[in-house]
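User: structure tokens for this one?
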Amino acid sequence: MNKQEARDALVTRLKADLEVVSESQRQTQEGLTHEDNKQEGDKDMRSTEASYLARGLAERVEQLHEEIGALSTLDIKGGRERAGAGALVTVEDEDEKQQAYLLTPHSGGARAEVKGMTVTLVTTKSPMGRALLGKEEGDDVEFVTPRGTRYVTIIEIA
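Assistant:
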């Protein structure tokens, strides 16, 4: 897999997420003005709760737009000797399972399948991203996650 394929797959995934969240936000906005959401008393919180949901979805839509823009313009050119923003880092864990990570200074968490391998968008601010920064092929990397300490070996940096 190359970096362009990985980035394109992740952008496609984020755009699909954007469509779903945008539709949910649109429906929630429409629901705010629906007759069933009118308050029936001073303790009725339906409209307030719906407005909180609509605001949260609108913020997520904006965040996804920003993530798509940042990822689309991320400099992924050229080979790299060390892991940094824009690098596609393939690692192998203790069970010899390989996983690819595209390092980015913004956002993270999106996943996509590329040629049978999962590629994950990882922010350089995350525990894993910080652990990978500056490392080279062959380096062993240790980082702490909510599920405990993980150990991986870098097998390729593109």
